[in-house]
Amino acid sequence: MGQLRHLGRCHGEPRLIILGLDPSLSSTGWGVIRADGNRLAAVANGQIRTLASAPLAARLADLAQRLEAVIAEHQPTAAAAEEVFVNKNAASTLKLAQARGVALMCAARGGLEVGEYAPSLVKKAVVGTGGASKDQVHAMVAMLLPGARIAGEDAADALAVAITHAHHLASARRGVG
Question: How high does pLDDT run on average in the chain?
Fold first, then answer.
């Protein structure tokens, strides 16, 4: 596995290109941001939808191929994914976990270290409270990344994960938390 890649800056602080992932078998959200010190900027985002009528293995392979294309195009230096939440439908949870496994594998094969965050931590990092609604998260993502054209709900969630990772990395560099 590769080392964490970064683009150097003259002040010694890395400029990061962070890929955020909101994995799902039906629609995986992805978002790429640039973190330059405390400044964040949207680079790109989208949603990868798989064909519900296709066999599971084919859907996972399609997801992998398309995520690898996103990584190749945007050359992120770090990645972050939302952790699996367990819901009442065990089959849905298992499919979500399989899609998440594909996302983590693609990032690792791309040489990226991957941060993993609980949904409540993402909400707290972006909105300030772990009980925030999806609408509140999406509104804050739009505010934190002005001018970003967000491709949809799953892409907004992925951008929130990327923002969370940027905040986490900035805190780690400062020796906080």
Answer: 89
What integer pLDDT is reported at residue 177 of this predicted model?
52
Backbone angles phi, psi at 133, to 5 degrees: -80, 165
Q: Given this model, what pLDDT does residue 2 score?
A: 37
Residue 154 among the catalytic residues: yes
The yes or no reply on domain 15-174 and CATH 2.60.40.3140 is no
The catalytic residue among 68, 116, 154, 157 is: 154
Residue type, 3: Q
Q: By the 8 A CB rule, do 7 and 15 touch?
A: yes
The residue among 72, 64, 32 whose CA lies nearest residue 48 is 64
Taking the domains of the chain in order of start, what are their residue ranges?
A: 15-174
Of 164, 170, 63, 177, residue with least CA distance to 115: 164
Q: Is residue 82 flagged as an active site residue?
A: yes
Helix, strand, coil percentages (3-state) for the chain, rounded to 5, are 45, 20, 30
* Positions of E strands within the chain: 15-22, 27-36, 39-49, 78-82, 114-117
135 catalytic residue (yes or no): no
Per the CB < 8 A criterion, the answer to whether 79 and 166 are in contact is no
